Amino acid sequence: MAVRVAIKAVPGARSDEIVGPLGDRLKVRVSAPPEGGRANEAICALLARALGVRQQDVEVVSGHGRAEKVVEVRGASESAVRALLWGEEGRGNGGEERRPDARGKRGGVA
User: Fold this and answer.
1) How far apart are CA 45 and CA 82, in angstroms?
2) What is the reported pLDDT for 59?
């Protein structure tokens, strides 16, 4: 079974990370430049690590030269992909929702 995920890619970032949902897409930052398919490879590697599948089971199927891409993931159920990428584990802050503390500063954990 294959699951398709709409991606908003940000190549040339400081580090590789799954940022989280951005509208109907998943925002992903990778440090690789958008040259020679290196950013696409880095996106596939990042998603494969996050989902526990082999890198060759994650493939960019459209948007190879654009920031908006569609990635196909094989070997993972749709519910597993959605839970990891859009659920608690997919948040950039480790799944903890930050709320203002008593002084109004960000930092309290829900």
Assistant:
1) 17
2) 97
For residue 27, give its domain range.
Answer: 2-109
Structural domains in the chain (count): 1
Assess contact for 20 and 91: CB atoms under 8 A: yes
CATH number assigned to the domain comprising residue 33: 3.30.1200.10
In degrees to the nearest 10, what's the CA dihedral of 36, 42, 43, 45? Answer: 130
- Report the candidate in 5, 24, 27 with the shortest Cα–Cα distance to residue 77: 5
Q: Give the tens place of pLDDT for each residue, 66-90.
A: 999 999 999 988 888 888 777 744 4
**Cα dist. 93→44, 48, 77 in Å?**
21, 19, 24
**Entry pTM:** 0.76
**Beta pairing, strands 25-29 & 2-10:** parallel
Q: Which of 95, 14, 3, 93 is nearest to 47 (CA)?
A: 3
